[in-house]
Amino acid sequence: MILKMKKYFAPGRINLIGEHIDYNGGLVLPAAISIGITAYVSESSDAMFKLSSATHSEVLTFSATENFTFNKEKAWLNYPLGVFQFLKEKGFSLKPLHIHFESSLPESSGLSSSASVEVLTMFLLLQESDYEISHQQIAVWCKEVENDFIGVNCGIMDQFCIANAEPKSAMMLNCATLEYENTEIDFGEKKIAILNTKKPRNLIHSKYNERRSECEQALAIIQQKRNSAAANLCECLIEDIECIENEIIKQRARHVIEENKRVKQAVEVLKNNDIATFEALLKQSHQSLKHNYEVSGTELDAIVDAALNHESCSGARMTGAGFGGCAIALVQANAFEEFKDFVIKQYAQATGLQAEIYLCDIGEGVKILE
Ligand code: GLA
Prior knowledge:
The protein is α+β, with helices and mostly antiparallel strands. The protein folds into two domains: 6-184, Ribosomal Protein S5, domain 2, CATH 3.30.230.10; 190-360, Alpha-Beta Plaits, CATH 3.30.70.890. The chain has helices spanning 78-89, 113-128, 135-150, 157-164, 204-225, 247-271, 275-291, 298-309, 336-351, and strands at 5-15, 27-28, 30-43, 48-53, 60-63, 97-103, 169-174, 180-184, 190-196, 313-318, 326-332, 356-359, 367-368. α2 (113-128) crosses α4 (157-164). It is globular and about 60 Å long. The two termini are 20 Å apart. Bound molecules: alpha-D-galactopyranose. Alpha-D-galactopyranose binds next to α4.
């Protein structure tokens, strides 16, 4: 019997600006990229689900009655299994499928491969089982999977962008209200490059959760000492942070409040085609993530410095959670090859690592391919 095969795709994402503020009720400016994860889906002939991947050897076959909790040994399978478990607990009756994943996204590199698998799996399971659920709802549920099943207390940015992004656009997303506006990306003669440090992101989960709890502490102090009614850190004023005695907590709050302001400014200057000011904001964002929020690190700093040392680039910053992974840079398109060689060489001298650098095409949110 020949079973019908369907293809689904979910992109990775970059974040132009607005880092580590989604979980503080801030504004962010992510965009889907053209690389991502494809799922080949066929109906199961024996009522069993099967998950496999082109990049990993683990394969799992299971029945609809099985239950799952996070298990380190299961590696990447935790993401689709978290989604499966979530939908099951919500009462959805899911059609048994064989799902084979193929990814062109570098893993653990800050381009959000985990949110991409989650959104892809949830979207296709619901589609194939004939449920009509909005992309916004899928994003919110996938964030819950990441928070409660995987145990990373992330914000909504990645899942929301991957589920909802429009072609050629960045999305200005208000993470407190989930209202968003698409802004067409056009940097004229300049293009966005992705700079992968190839530095594995160790300890990312614990450091990420630590930053989040530092922000919660900052907000609680401001609410108490300033009698502030702010519902999140991005609603606080910069002068509010003066009441925070602990220098580290104060620095974290400074980053959050100032980064949120930078996003607002970035959206304005992009509307006026003022690329030079946008580039200046990218640099300020990186400096703040390095010094105030301390999520950058030797490799990300080295690659951003190398990019800015080349004459074709005046704006670069880390993107995503940090602690390794990728940076983005705005580069004069006709000088890209020269830029690439220059950065790879200078970065290798500084770190001994071989960076991967490519131009980034803007993509769109999760979809059925055929
Ligand atoms: C990760 C998280 C997002 C966001 C970024 C940092 O990608 O999943 O929610 O917090 O880090 O901006």
